[in-house]
Write a structure and sequence with these properties.
The structure is a single chain. By secondary structure, the protein is of the alpha/beta class. It has 27 helices and ten strands. Helix content is 53%, strand content 9%. Helix 9 packs antiparallel against helix 10. The N and C termini lie far apart (106 Å).
Length: 545
């Protein structure tokens, strides 16, 4: 047999150069001669892991750690094998043990940061990567990973700080520039983010993610034509990228380019993390007429989406023999009263698809595309729940100031109640809160004498409809209540973010979706002062008539 040192060296050479079977054989030969050789044990475990034998790697390294509990490299290698096996908590413990034995163990610090990230503890991951960066401030990798982890932890400022340190070390790295752009976006500095994404595109013209991010930034700034050009460029690089297709669709729809937008809107089902299509068990309806067919239609997304797109149900029903519509329970009574010829149910569409004997299925939000061009976008009956009428002088006014906080962009559409306090104190007007859970906010703002909390009556949307029927006007942000008001023909003044949801268009104070609504838009992103002042002026003018 070769000298053990020479044999170990030869095994390492095979290992480094990818000849794993040869390396494994030499490690085993050395261990047969020197059973406790630490280098051979660690090398064999690493080679087995690299060859795909994670179970074998874990087994050999666990035994090695028991026999040599004070060898940090063995604990680190065991952590790697456990990570490869998906055992992230056990991997974390191994890396922690390696660092207890050797606090400045750079590789173990990096590995621990990765494990903590996989476990969802992004703040601890970031702090771990920062410790590694302190040991090797000349390496960009640890500052880079710290920045990415801080962003996942929700600390955009610290993320940007770390990424700037990484970029200073490697200023030509387009991926670092792009990630810094994402962090800067999170801080709200869209101009700074746009500069960074443009720099990333300049460094790497085929870097699809940078073009996509720049497109999103341009859209957030209201530069829709420029955004569309970048989405198109991103799709030229990745034609099947569902997230790009989806965002391109939203931009086209915001520009009221309905036909093109509807075509890409169907890509929403293919986005990463999107809910699955609940109607996969039945044939897809393509809009074809069939008087004998039973069509199953499922609502999707939020209550507001259902209220807005329910107008297409009668047109779909005219093309088939029978329609069953599945929607959330709070909407069932309302939808059933609006569409007596359609079977409305709260049963899950997956269950109906299996049990109702439907011939075909469609999502509610796909109906505009399926019915196009016979039924135009936003031309179906808007006031399908007619019951409201414009009052000459608005005396009873409903208020809603925030949406669902679980929605990703809710902070952009919601307004602090404190900003509406001067409006709520307008003499001669009864204000009624339509804001679920808003009672405490009303009391905290000192407005209990000015805004009646009507939300105890709002047990479902049928009850909300009854309350709205007694109001002259609704003032609020983009929520389901505003859609219900529009479907009833109750006038509303809708306050919108600088770049709103696509359905409200990019400009103008009217919407084809609800002719009785008046749109009041931010001129500056995040600044509600001017829209609120406009509402106050409009109300005073209406009261002076």
């Amino acid at each position: 047999m070769q000298n053990p040192a020479e044999l170990l060296n030869a095994a390492h050479v095979h290992h480094r150069e990818g000849r794993l079977a040869d390396a494994i054989a030499l490690y085993r030969e050395l261990l047969a001669a020197v059973p406790g050789d630490v280098g051979a044990l660690g090398g064999l475990g690493a080679a087995l892991r690299a060859s795909g034998d994670t179970a074998g790697a874990v087994d050999i390294l666990e035994r090695a750690c028991r026999d040599h509990p004070d060898e940090p490299a063995l604990h680190n290698n065991l952590g790697n094998a456990l990570a490869a096996a998906g055992q992230w908590m056990a991997a974390e413990a191994s890396y922690v043990r390696a660092l207890e034995l050797k606090p400045d163990y750079l590789e173990a610090l990096g590995n621990l940061g990765g494990a903590l990230g996989r476990l969802g503890d992004h703040a601890s991951a970031a702090e771990t990567f920062e410790k590694a960066a302190e040991l090797r401030p000349d390496l960009s990798v640890f500052a880079y990973e710290a920045g990415r982890a801080w962003r996942r932890a929700g600390d955009a400022a610290r993320a940007a700080e770390c990424l700037r340190r990484a970029l200073a070390l490697e200023p030509e790295r387009a991926d670092i520039v792009n990630d810094l752009g994402n962090a800067v976006t999170d801080t709200g500095d869209l101009d700074g983010a746009l500069h960074l994404f443009s720099r990333a595109v300049e460094l790497a013209p085929t870097f699809m993610e940078a073009r996509f991010n720049r497109a999103n930034t341009l859209r957030a700034q209201g530069r829709l034509a420029d955004a569309l050009a970048d989405y198109d460029a991103a799709l030229a690089l990745a034609p099947e990228h569902a997230e790009v297709r989806w965002n391109r669709a939203l931009t086209l729809l915001l520009m009221e380019r309905w036909e093109d937008g509807l075509r890409d809107y169907a890509w929403r089902w293919r986005r990463q993390g999107a809910v699955s299509d609940p109607l996969v068990q039945v044939a897809k309806w393509r809009g074809e007429p069939d008087a004998a067919a039973h069509l199953l239609i499922a609502s999707e997304q939020g209550y507001g989406d259902t209220l807005q797109f329910a107008r297409y149900l009668p047109a779909a029903a005219r093309r088939v023999g029978r329609v069953t519509f599945s929607c959330p329970p709070p909407l069932v009574e309302l939808m059933a009263s609006a569409f007596p010829d359609i079977e409305v149910t709260a049963s899950a569409p997956e269950t109906l698809a299996a049990d109702a004997g439907a011939d075909a299925g469609a999502s509610l939000l796909d109906l505009p595309g399926l019915l196009w061009p016979d039924v135009g976008m936003a031309t179906a009956d808007a006031a399908y729940l007619a019951g409201g009428a414009a009052a000459a002088m608005p005396r009873r006014i409903g208020l809603v100031w925030r949406g669902n906080p679980s929605q990703r962009l809710d902070s952009e559409r919601s307004i602090p109640l404190s900003l509406l306090a001067p409006l709520a104190r307008t003499p001669g007007v009864e204000f009624h809160s339509l804001q679920l859970g808003g009672g405490e906010e009303i009391r905290a703002a000192g407005l209990a004498d000015h805004i009646a909390d009507a939300t105890a009556e709002l047990t479902d949307f049928a009850a909300t409809r009854r309350l709205l029927a007694g109001l002259d006007l609704v003032i609020g942000v983009d929520t389901a209540v505003l859609h219900l008001a529009g479907a009833m023909g109750v006038p509303a003044w809708l306050l919108l973010a600088r770049v709103p949801d696509w359905r409200w268009g990019a400009d103008g104070d009217k919407t084809p979706w609800y002719p009785v609504h008046r749109l009041i838009r931010q001129a500056i992103a995040g600044d509600w002062s001017a829209p609120v002042q406009t509402v106050e002026d409009l109300l005073l003018a209406a009261l002076d008539r």
